[in-house]
Amino acid sequence: MDAKDIESALPLIEEAIQSTRLEVRSYGELGMFAISQRSDSAQLIGHLAPVVARNLQDPDVHIRKGAVLVLSGMRPKPPEEAISYLLSALQFDHELGPGIVYGLVQIDPNRTDIAHAIDVYMKTNMATRDQRVDTLNALASRQVTDRRLISDMATNFSDESEDVRLSAIRAIVRSGPAGVEASKQQLRRLAGPDEPSENVRDEAQRALGKPQDAK
To answer: Is the peptide bond before 76 cis (omega within 30 degrees of 0)?
Structure first.
């Protein structure tokens, strides 16, 4: 569809995403998501950010997750209003947390307000193992260079869960050499004999560029 066709269809899509019927809201959000993947989507649907953002409070988690994808996926960059909705939702919806973090990382994880919001979230709202794993996976990007976020990732080296420790190491490695260098002392601890998990030891040794212990 060209831009004119989309503009003609937008009133129907806008009405659909506000429907009282879950099925209709789902179809409307799918349409909005498809538009958000266009290179000119911010221009086409950026003005609808407040309408999409209402679905961040939908009782259905799939609708809420869809709203995150639309708000964070507008191209070439979401409007500031969309980003502000995501920053707010990060602090009150723990289920959406990892998905919002992923979206914010794609926008600019080192922007002061974005880095601060992710930092607060990681310090206060990652209550479950799955949240911690999924958030660390969302942060596993070369784009992440903010020192607070590198430190937050490294804090999870001490998590009781092997899966969380592994995800933290991988996230640090994906952040690049500076992240590994900043975390070298903690990585050495994980690579040593006091670390109970063989998988974690191996991952830490790889991160440090050391040969793994013979099995």
So the answer is: yes
